[in-house]
Amino acid sequence: MAACTQPGLPHPSDPPCLIAILIAAKKTGDKTMSALASQWLEEAGISVRFAKDAPALRHGGKAVRHA
Question: How large is the angle between the packed helices 31-43 and 15-28, nearest 10 degrees?
């Protein structure tokens, strides 16, 4: 199992660990940590959007939210 941090790196780089950090930060309302985790994930080429933060999708003329 990969560790959340690696020697010499200033932040965690393991995507599953970063996603866990992002979810925990969102649940606790920690906007700074949430922004950092999102940034680190984007550096790894991963974009995460939560359903309540995403715009509603249009399907057949109706606004639809996907979970």
Answer: 160
Domain that holds residue 29: 15-64
Domain count, the chain: 1
* Residue 44 resides in a domain: yes
Cα gap 52→27, rounded to integer Å: 13
* Predicted confidence (pLDDT) per residue in 33-52, tens digit: 999 999 999 998 999 888 77
Instruction: Give the H or E element holding residue 15.
Output: helix 15-28
pTM (2 d.p.): 0.62
